[in-house]
Amino acid sequence: MKHLTPAEAYARLQREPDALLIDCRTEIEFFYVGHPVGAVNIEWHTTPDFEVNPNFAADVLREAGRKERPILLICRSGKRTLDAGVELEARGFTDVTNVLEGFEGELDENFHRGTLGGWRKAGLPWEQM
Predict the structure, then answer these.
(1) Burial label, 128 (beta-carbon count in 10 A; 0-12, 13-18, 19+)
(2) CA 74 to chain CA mean position, Å
(3) Phi, psi at 110, each rounded to 5°
(4) Mean pLDDT per 10-residue run, the chain (129 residues)?
(5) How many whole angstroms separate alpha carbon 124 and alpha carbon 1?
(6) CB under 8 Å to 61, separation ≥6 — which residues?
(7) C-alpha to C-alpha distance for 12 and 24, rounded to whole angstroms
(8) Whole-prediction pTM
(9) Residue 111: left (phi > 0), alpha (psi -120 to 50), or beta?
């Protein structure tokens, strides 16, 4: 699995229009916290119990169309994507990238996200419901 900063991931998405950005946060996080423009939401953990989505790899394949397509994974802070990426590689996906820092970054000293890093903090295109 490769690892890119949010700015590097955005640059790759611009260079490679076939690359697919999968946001693997919950649907609620995706819509209400916000998400990168053009990202597709496929939950790694499903609500309400936060269980691992047993159909994750199949859902990604359905969206991607083929296992060789470049897949970039983003979550809240870049941790869920590590497990999701390992799963995709175990299922035969050949070009998987983790977006470091995720959408919101790590918690700061006040337990707030969005101040230390992440897609949004980097000023990259995002939208919110």
Answers:
(1) exposed
(2) 2
(3) -100, 10
(4) 98 97 96 96 91 97 98 95 98 98 88 85 94
(5) 23
(6) 67, 91, 93
(7) 19
(8) 0.94
(9) left
User: Buried b vs exposed e over 48-73: b needs ≥16 C-beta within 10 Å?
Assistant: eeeeebeebbebbbeebeebebbbbb
Give how far Cα 113 sits from Cα of 54, 59, 92, 107, Å.
28, 29, 33, 5
**DSSP string of 8-64?**
HHHHHHHH-TT-EEEE-S-HHIIIII-EETT-EE--SEETTTTEE-TTHHHHHHHHH
- Residue 96 CA neighbour count, 13 Å, CB half: 21
Q: Quick one: tokens of 29?
A: 């996080």
Task: Give the three-class secondary structure for 114.
Answer: coil
Q: Are 63 and 75 in contact (CB under 8 A)?
A: no
Residue 48: cis peptide before it, omega within 30 degrees of 0: yes
